[in-house]
Amino acid sequence: MESKYLKVKCKCGNEQTVFSHTTQIVNCSSCNEPLAHPSGGVAIIHGDIVEELGGFRYLNFQIRTNLLLQL
C-alpha cells in the first residue's frame, strides 16, 4: 500500500494530519488522545479519516504552491 498523509478527526472535533505508516504514537494536539499508532506497516487509526491528502510528492507540491501564492 502506498504511504500517504491522512486528515484524521479526533472525537473532540480537532482535525490533524497523520502519516499513514507512522512509526510513533500520534496524539491529538488538543485533547492528547491517541489518533494513530504503529503496527509494523499501515498505522492503526483511532479517529475518523476525513480526507486522504496524498503521498509525499503531493504534499510537497501543495506546500510549494501555497508558498508561491503567498508571495
Please describe what this structure looks like.
- The strands form two sheets. The chain has a three-stranded antiparallel beta sheet.
- The chain is built from one helix and six strands; from the N terminus they run ββββββα.
- By secondary structure, the protein is an alpha+beta fold.
- The longest helix is centred in the last third of the chain and has 15 residues, at 56-70.
- It has a single domain, classed as N-terminal domain of TfIIb.
Shape: globular
The structural class is alpha+beta
Largest beta sheet: strand ordering = 2-1-6
Mean pLDDT: 83
Tally of distinct domains: 1
Q: For the record, what is the CATH homologous superfamily label?
A: Ribosomal protein S27
- Percent of residues in beta strands? 35-45%
CATH class: Mainly Beta
Report Rg. 13 Å
Could you say what the CATH architecture is? Single Sheet
